[in-house]
Specification:
The complex is a heterodimer of chains A (324) and B (371). In chain A, 50% of the residues lie in helices and 15% in strands. Chain A has helices at 2-6, 21-34, 56-60, 85-96, 100-108, 110-118, 120-136, 158-172, 176-189, 205-220, 240-253, 259-278, 293-305; strands spanning 10-14, 39-46, 72-75, 78-84, 148-152, 195-201, 225-233, 283-287. In chain A, helix 4 (85-96) packs antiparallel against helix 5, helix 7 crosses helix 8 (158-172) and helix 7 crosses helix 9. The radius of gyration of chain B is 25 Å and the shape is elongated. Classes of the chains: A alpha/beta (324), B alpha/beta (371). The interface between A and B is large, with 73 and 75 residues.
């Protein structure tokens, strides 16, 4: 399944805050590079105020100093960029205005900048436009400069806002340059061979419910879902017989320490089954590992590139989460 | 001070925190606890998970708050004077009311609400949810029907985003900026202003097409009348939230929690002059449950190999559990360090996954109030 993922041009990594989305985006990028792909890893949703703060995603792949909206090669085959609305808006203005000078003058106008910053749709459009611009860039021989872009979308409903944006924009501005560029963006975003959303979630009831709702909403906007990613799946140390015996013993002798962990494990397994059964996309289950930060990124990338994850059969069949 | 005294004394509890930490559940549970203690409470929330809405008996996108039936609220005890209303606010409803209230005339309100752009702007999520939350809170405080309002702020990367929303909206609608978009005869100013306006006209015309720019001008022209009102209300709400009647709590979870986030939150509030009330460490295993170690079970397995393996596995889980609980206790302890007087750091127990019914909220609320 992962090889099929790497064939696309853009992967949109989405999920609620706290599900490990940023770490997974970094690990996926590393894994794709390890499989021989050239990858652009992009952080999305940076507001003007945040642009100067250190980038959490950048730090995870070793990008110490992120040069504003520019692309930084952090290791062979892996580049990093912070998509910025302002940069996208500037590129857009350059595209539609007859003179480059005019675009620069316009972007220097405080009124216009403020307007573009505050109007939410235009911010997301700027991000979309910069992304398109980077996806379209080619090498001298005409092949894409960044064959695979992995985008770490902001937490909360922004993934939906980005998915809903083209429809909203087209409904108010069907013609003109915005309409044109939105149509172009849609052609990319809605083509399942080119784009896929990865919905990251945790093996808990509420996150799974929310992910299933998000999946429905994203599909309504016809953005293809490449896969669900179930993060931090706890290891199941029991054989079926062993588990049954433990249940018997606990019934007879009352609760013991480990109950909470046992409950958590059961909830995780139920959540996994529910997600696999209701999500109309393959499910990739990623184990819970006792490390964090860059070490976690490396361990997850190694996990994602291990050969058993690349069978010809689809991934749902694999009982990840059981004994590795 | 304990969480219980906050619930008894405050008029507004603002729950901040990143998405996914269980903020809405905490808000609901605190509201339930305060109402069972006898106060008239409103829980104001945006976009709760559907199951939680069901547990609360809350219709989605209702135009008014819904009352929890007293027999449910006071289940298992003598009915008290407390009352609990919940409202999952719909930004569109809030915004429309706001336009109607602030518009100088019904015609002016209609001009805004019937503009195609109005739908477009209020449809887009970013910023509008936050604004709607601030607006609704201000409104309910003004009416004074409730003794306590628990506000579940929209999930955001930064805990205090929602406070910035009115400012952002006001900046957007700043009449100096809006006037640049207005038809020339209505505008003011000298040559520089005219030149800027012209440039902007050209740029917007090329970007959006002439028709759209015209539409935008009409819309902003109608909206600019509301500008003074927005600023005034933003100031008033800021004043109310700075008073000792208000309290800000950060909800965080052991997984996502970082001590940096917590101290950032505190500093931010101090900088803004807002009352910091403490932290809720949600879904934590910090509480002792006093259970015996599963090693004791080994005595009972006799020569059953599967049972022995099972118990060994359970012993492994117990070790993990102990380590986790210890980590959570450590986190709680560090959150509690250097707390200012009156602030709390409490651990909310893991509710065992989803709260399936109202009873779960009652239990969680009791656990929080008494910790």
């Amino acid at each position: 399944m992962l090889d099929a993922l790497w064939e696309r041009r853009a992967l949109l990594v989405s999920g609620k805050g706290g599900v490990g989305k940023t770490t997974l985006a970094a690990a996926l990028a590393r894994a794709a590079v390890a499989s021989g792909r050239r990858v652009l890893l992009a952080e999305v949703g940076v507001t003007a105020e945040e642009q100067d703060n250190p980038s959490p995603l950048g730090a995870l792949v070793g990008a110490r100093h992120v040069p504003g909206p520019g692309v930084l090669e952090v290791s062979p085959g892996l580049s990093f960029v912070r998509l910025s609305a302002i940069e996208g808006q500037r590129l857009f203005l350059q595209d539609v205005l007859p003179l480059r000078m005019m675009a620069d003058a316009a972007m220097r106008t405080r009124a216009l900048r403020r307007f573009l910053e505050a109007a939410p749709a235009l911010r997301e459009m700027g991000v979309l436009f910069q992304m398109l611009h980077l996806v379209r860039r080619t090498r001298p021989d005409g092949s894409p400069l960044y064959p695979l872009c992995i985008l770490d979308l902001p937490a909360t409903g922004h993934a939906l806002a980005i998915a809903a944006l083209p429809d909203a924009l087209l409904s108010v501005m069907p013609g003109g340059p915005i309409g044109r560029s939105v149509r172009e963006g849609l052609a990319l975003l809605r083509d399942p061979r080119l784009t896929g959303a990865l919905l990251v979630t945790l093996p808990e009831p509420l996150p799974v419910s929310e992910t299933l709702e998000l999946a429905t909403a994203i599909q309504r906007h016809r953005i293809p879902i490449a896969a669900g990613v179930l993060n931090r799946m706890p290891d199941n140390p029991f054989s079926p017989d062993g588990r049954a015996a433990v249940e018997r013993l606990l019934d007879e002798h009352g609760p013991h320490l480990g109950q909470r962990a046992l409950g958590r494990l059961d909830r995780a397994r139920t959540a996994q089954a529910r997600l696999a059964g209701n999500l109309s996309a393959p499910l990739l289950t990623v184990p819970e590992l006792p490390v964090s930060g860059r070490e976690l990124v490396e361990r997850l990338a190694t996990y994602l590139t291990r050969p058993t994850l690349h069978p010809a059969a689809p991934l749902e069949g694999e009982s990840a989460g059981a004994r590795p | 001070m304990s969480l219980q005294s906050l619930l008894r004394e405050k008029r507004v509890l603002v729950l901040c925190g990143a998405g996914g930490v269980g903020k809405t559940t905490t808000a609901a549970a605190l509201g339930v606890a305060a109402a069972r203690e006898g106060r008239k409470v409103l829980v104001l929330t945006i976009d709760p998970a559907r199951r939680l809405a069901e547990a609360m008996g809350m219709p989605e996108g209702g135009a008014e708050p819904t009352s929890i039936p007293p027999e449910r609220l006071h289940a298992g005890r003598e009915p008290g004077p407390g009352r609990l209303d919940v409202w999952m606010l719909d930004p569109r409803v809030v915004f429309e009311r706001f336009v109607r209230r602030l518009s100088p005339s019904p015609e002016a309100a209609r001009n805004i609400l019937e503009n195609r752009l109005y739908r477009f702007l209020s449809d887009l999520v970013a910023g509008m949810q936050e604004y709607a939350a601030a607006e609704a809170l201000d409104n309910f405080l003004d009416e004074g029907h409730y003794e306590l309002i628990v506000l579940d702020t929209p999930p955001s990367r930064h805990a205090l985003d929602f406070l910035e929303a009115p400012g952002r909206l006001a900046r957007f609608l700043d009449d100096r900026i809006v006037s640049l978009f207005l038809p020339e005869e209505k505008g003011r100013g000298g040559r520089l202003w005219r030149k800027t306006s012209q440039l902007l006209g050209n740029v917007l015309g090329s970007i959006f097409g002439e028709g759209f720019t015209q539409e935008m001008r009409t819309f902003l022209g109608a909206f600019s009348g509301l500008f003074a009102g927005i600023l005034l209300r933003a100031d008033r709400l800021r004043g109310r939230l700075s008073s000792p009647d208000a309290a800000f709590l950060l909800v965080t979870s052991p997984e996502g929690a970082s001590l940096e986030e917590a101290s950032f939150f505190r500093d931010m509030l101090r900088e803004k002059g807002l009352p910091f009330a403490g932290y809720v460490l949600n879904r934590s295993w910090a509480r002792e449950d006093g259970l015996t170690s599963p090693e004791a079970l080994l005595r009972h397995v006799e020569d059953d190999g599967a049972a022995r393996d099972g118990v060994e596995a359970l012993i492994g889980l117990a070790d993990l559990e102990r380590a986790r609980a210890e980590a959570h206790r450590g986190l709680l302890k560090r959150l509690a360090e250097k707390l200012p007087a009156g602030a709390v750091a409490v651990a909310a127990p893991e509710a065992g996954g989803e709260l399936e019914d109202f009873g779960g909220l009652v239990r969680l609320g009791d656990a929080l109030a008494t910790s």
